[in-house]
Amino acid sequence: MAALPKAPTGIEGLDEITEGGLPKGRPTLICGSAGCGKTLMGVEFLVRGILDYNEPGVLMAFEETADELAANVASLGFDLKQLQANKLLRLDHVHVDRSEIEETGEYDLEGLFIRLGYAIDSIGAKRVVLDTIESLFSGFPNQAVLRSEIRRLFRWLKDKGVTTVITAERGEGSLTRQGLEEYVSDCVILLDNRVINQITTRRLRIVKYRGSTHGTNEYPYIITEDGISVVPVTSLRLEHVVSNEVVSTGVAGLDDMFTHRGVYRGSSTLITGTAGTAKTTLAVSFAIEACRRGERCVYFAFEESPEQLIRNMQSVGMDLRPFVEQGLLFIEASRPTLNGLEQHLVTVHKLIKEIKPGTVIIDPISNLVSVGSISEVRAMLTRLIDYLKVQGVTALFTALISGRSATQEMTEEGVSSLVDTWVHVRDLEGVGERNRGVSILKARGMAHSNQVREFVVTSHGVQLLDVKIGPDGIVTGASRLAQSIQEQAQIIANQQEVERRDRELERKRRVLEATIANLRTEFESVEEELRRITLEEEHRQNSLTQSRQQIARDFANRRTDKSSDSPDNA
């Protein structure tokens, strides 16, 4: 089935929610109250069509002259006179009175058709804007003729095959004053300009679009120096690409609390806490770490000016100025009440497109509640978080929570469920003192510590302290110091006991060695005595043997002598 031909408007965000643009060759009605930007949207539709899609256009104005229109949109960079000179645009101001419209019995628009047809044919126009239709029909007192002429006008425009935008003022209880234009138009876009709490909020809604699907929500839009920007609300789908790369939070101790030592690139992190719990300091640590990686970072500050933020962070050893001067850090500071939510959202979009940062920090998002309801802020933040994820930007938000309950961890904006990582900082009140603690409540896709770690803000930034366990659990502050002193004293006592035992052992060793030496000396004496006795015994035995031998020889000699003296031998 062939899709309905569409003419892209070139207006930021509008083509996305209309799924391609306005119905090509058909009339579109843009209605709204004064100050909504109807004329501007019509002019931008023409200029974008000429510049981006090479479709000449005709602007027929019934209230403003050509010079007034050219001057009004010159600040947006639209040079209508040059486009006229190039025969790409035809500006025609029609002053409506009875002398301008040919009257044949009753009023009709035949004269206007001739004039408009000539303008279209003279430049080969593909786009037409009629601004505004109420002025055109102001001279028609007869309602029956009026309604007939409106139908005839829309039919004539369709037959000409031009893509037409017709602006109309909103009526009481109806989209238009005549209550007919919306029925004969193929597409109807309603612009709304609300003032809530002294803050203007512009919203756009596509009431109908024949032959095409379209976004059905109210979409905020703003008018900037670049024209109209429409911010989609729910058209973004969760189809963004994710990264497995982990980036540091800028605080080593906090990184250690994550299994992968950091958070995923392109994820969103929320830091909540009561006032004075160093949320901004943690956010600045995050920003500095991003700059050290060579990434661009945009820091949206809603409470401090850039110079104040730089000065305050210098007191804790974090110097932002070099990164600002290098063009790595951009600090966008303003009060939330300066603009509506949509303006803030579009500002974020604009800066991301211009700067292409790797990291975005908003400090704090809780201040946005002052310019919108909770539901509006939540919707805005949902769009923002989704947009940042689609762009692959690592985001960090801080949020102030109520101090009525120290255990309260839910944010008023209700965005804690939308973010990937939730870090909570809190006051740890002890005996007569208050300390700071940090814990991780959730980290999607990553295991994390379940401890509440005490941290201090030193002259070198944020430093997490080691966990100290006392008799009643984790101790902090002065109790931590007392615990440390006790542990140190115990360590010293243990060392002294070890040294005492070593000395005692040394003494015993020496005594034992002395005893061994004495025994060895005694042994040697005994051994020597035994050798002496043995030697003497040997001498005695030798002497005895010699004596015996001598006696034996003497005896033998005497026997020999006796034998010689015997008479038998004589």
Can you walk through the features of this model?
By secondary structure, the protein is an alpha/beta fold. It is 40% helix and 23% strand. Strands 5-4-8-9-3-10-11-12-13 form a nine-stranded mixed β-sheet, sandwiched between helices. The chain has a nine-stranded mixed β-sheet with strand order 18-17-19-20-16-21-22-23-24, with helices on both faces. A hairpin with a 2-residue loop joins strand 10 (187-196) and strand 11. Helix 13 (341-355) runs parallel beside helix 14 (374-390). The model has no long low-confidence stretch (mean pLDDT 84).
**Radius of gyration based on Cα positions:** 49 Å
The coarse silhouette is rod-shaped
The structure class reads alpha/beta
Given the structure, what is the number of helices? Answer: 15
Strand order of the largest sheet: 5-4-8-9-3-10-11-12-13
Kindly state the mean pLDDT as a whole number?
A: 84
Report the biggest beta sheet as strand number plus sense, adding barrel if it closes: 9 strands, mixed
Low-confidence stretches: none
Number of strands: 26
Estimate percent helicity.
40-55%
Strand content: 15-25%
Instruction: Give the CA-CA distance, first to last residue.
Output: 176 Å
In short:
The protein has 570 residues and is α/β, with parallel strands linked by helices.
